[in-house]
UniProtKB/TrEMBL annotation:
The lineage of its organism: Eukaryota, Fungi, Fungi incertae sedis, Chytridiomycota, Chytridiomycota incertae sedis. This is Thioredoxin reductase. Residues 363-379 have a biased composition (Polar residues). GO terms for cellular component: cytoplasm. It comes from Caulochytrium protostelioides. Binds 1 FAD per subunit.
Length: 379
């Protein structure tokens, strides 16, 4: 396995052992993970980040490394390449003291605190790395169809995010295709009509899965044409950008006939897979696998708390609605602040329980918050 790590300016006072667990481990490396890490590092919590090594098939840095220009992240009036934006976030995390480890987390045990994690290739019990709190920022993977030409024209006419890429010059006043029949497909198709000359929606079956209101809106839109029982099977272009798409009839009774239409864009809107496999049913998720976050314990508003105390979730792994870099970063900030508060209260709790349990023993605050964590009573 290939791996590398960057040392933080001041090494964490913990070593990740059961006796001296890390205060907090961040799993992931997209905008949510780095924002959380920057806040945690500035709070002197010495975060350790496992950024992944092609985890879920995506490079460290996350989904933005798969795109070209990002035009909607504040602070970059002329836009910025997705990979460069992520490099900058990574540098900022390291600058403030995050230790980044280029390994993929393969296994997590949340059954008791301190939590245990294992990286790929080191999955024996004695190789566990311990932490008092965990931030999950493993993102989601956009589903794509794979057919001839789909990789060649990826990001040169083919995308999985209309909100992100729809306004790009290569799509303006052009004929575009949206693939999918759910609410997201309907929403993305209607969004694209702002820029496109025409939007073809390719639906695999003869019915839309979208809600009635979205379906009605879609079918009534003058720029939209819905094609039932249809899927793209080949992307054709001039070597630079997509120009045509072959569409196949998918109906059970149909001929399987293939026709070619002129199109300069294909947008996949066939769903996302939240990257939660590593959790193995240890945390509450919704029916589609997204990690559930709980209402804030005091305000009742949104929070990054999950069903497991001490585990916080941020970014696309818990968001199937907004799915943007800036919203991922925003929830990364929430996760760090919720985590910081949890660790403070947990340290106070440990200090109190330790004092009660061993009144005759002098224990410093620091020892109580780390070494005693596994033995301490938790609520
Ligand atoms: C093609 C495309 C273009 C986009 N363009 C824009 C845009 O222009 N503007 C915008 O705001 N948004 C855009 N988005 C959406 C944006 O990229 C996401 O909303 C955002 O990246 C989500 O951030 P995240 O931090 O939740 O996680 P992600 O970016 O999904 O990153 C998660 C990271 O965690 C890693 N990981 C997963 N499992 C593990 C594990 N077990 N161990 C270690 N690491 C792990 C993954 O490999 C990945 O690198 C685009 C998305 C796509 C797909």
């Amino acid at each position: 396995m290939s791996s590398a790590s960057l040392a933080s300016p001041s090494p964490p006072p913990s070593d990740g052992s059961a006796a001296n667990p890390h205060p907090v481990i961040v799993v992931g490396s997209g905008p949510a993970a780095h924002t959380a890490a920057i806040y945690l590092a500035r709070a002197e919590l010495h975060p350790i980040m496992y950024e992944g090594f092609m985890a879920t098939g995506i490079a460290a840095g996350g989904q933005l490394t798969t795109t070209t220009e990002v035009e909607n992240f504040p602070g970059f009036p002329d836009g910025i390449m997705g990979s460069e934006l992520m490099d900058r976030m990574r540098k900022q995390s390291v600058h403030h003291g995050t230790k980044i480890i280029t390994e993929t987390v393969a296994k997590i045990d949340l059954s008791k605190r301190p939590f245990k994690i294992w990286v790929e290739g080191e999955e024996e019990d004695h190789q566990a790395i311990y932490c008092r709190a965990l931030i999950l920022a493993t993102g989601a993977t956009a589903k794509r169809l794979h057919f001839p030409g789909a990789d060649e024209y990826w990001q040169r006419g083919i995308s999985a995010c209309a909100v992100c890429d729809g306004a790009a010059p290569i799509f303006r006043n052009k004929t575009l295709i949206v693939v999918g029949g759910g609410d997201s497909a309907a929403e993305e198709a209607i969004f694209l009509t702002k820029y496109a000359k025409k939007v073809h929606v390719m639906v695999r079956r003869d019915v839309l899965r979208a809600s009635k209101v979205m379906a009605t809106r879609l079918l009534a839109h003058p720029k939209v044409e819905v094609h039932w029982n249809s899927l793209p099977v080949k992307a054709l272009g001039n070597g630079k950008v997509l120009t045509h798409v072959e569409i196949q009839d998918t109906s059970a009774t149909g001929s399987g006939e293939v026709r070619t239409i002129e199109a300069n864009g294909i947008f996949f809107a066939i769903g996302h897979t939240p990257n939660t496999a590593v959790l193995r049913d240890q945390i509450a998720t919704d029916a589609t696998g997204y990690v559930k976050t709980l209402p804030h314990p005091e305000s009742g508003g949104p929070s990054a708390h999950t069903s497991v105390k001490g585990v916080f979730a941020c970014g696309d792994v818990q968001d199937k609605v907004y799915r943007q870099a800036i919203s991922a970063a925003g929830t990364g900030c929430m996760a760090a602040l919720d985590c910081e508060r949890f660790l403070t209260e947990d340290s106070e709790h440990l200090a109190n329980t330790t004092t009660v349990a061993a009144p005759d023993k002098t224990v410093t605050g620091n020892e109580k918050s780390t070494s005693d964590a596994p033995k301490a009573k938790t609520s």
